[in-house]
Amino acid sequence: MKSHLTDVDRRPVTSVSCTPHVHGTTRGDTAHLRCSVVFDDGTSYTADAQIKNQNSGGRHNMPDLYSWDSPPPK
Questions:
Q1: Nearest to residue 69, comparing CAs of 27, 39, 32, 29?
Q2: Could you read off the pLDDT of 29-52 as tens digits, one per residue?
């Protein structure tokens, strides 16, 4: 998330902190998170985020899919 916001949205990010802390998801499950994002300029926002385990229905070795609320306009 930190590198995506910095690279794609061109907004340098100081930190991202999410709860709950997720170390992995089980097959076919989605973890729902609440993340606090702080930008280098001191502004911040809170994002809802999801981590989806795509390995279900006979699919194997698929990467987790990450998504989150976009930051407000600059």
A1: 32
A2: 999 999 999 999 999 999 999 999
DSSP for 19-35 reads: ES--S---TT-EEEEEE
pLDDT of residue 61 exceeding 90, the answer is no
Average pLDDT over residues 52-57: 86
CA distances from residue 18 to 13, 22, 53, 56, 61 in whole angstroms, order as listed: 14, 9, 18, 25, 25
- C-alpha gyration radius of the chain: 14
Q: Note whether 64 and 25 are within 8 A (CB).
A: yes
Distance of CA 35 to the CA centre of its chain: 8
